Amino acid sequence: MATRAEYYVGIDTHKFSHTVSVINYDTDKILTFSFDNTPEHFDSALGRILEVTENEPLIFGLEDVKSFGFMFSEFLDERDYTVHHVNPKTCRLLTTVITQL
Asked: What CATH number corresponds to the domain at position 27?
């Protein structure tokens, strides 16, 4: 039986920086921060995430992995993290639906 993720890490990717939002299984927001979209900042960004998640199971969701998010997605893949590629249009649609509830 697969272990459920205790934390979900959403990453909104941009050309020069990425914004991270970490929530727990109960959807409580744990951490939000931005970091530069350069390989030399990836280790410190992951370190901040691991610090608050205490090495519990994680799932990452990234937008735009074919362009701005590609390097960070590859960085996470190389470290055996579960990375889901999220369509930005789907995110906008879900945000609209959820805010109307």
From this structure: 3.30.420.40
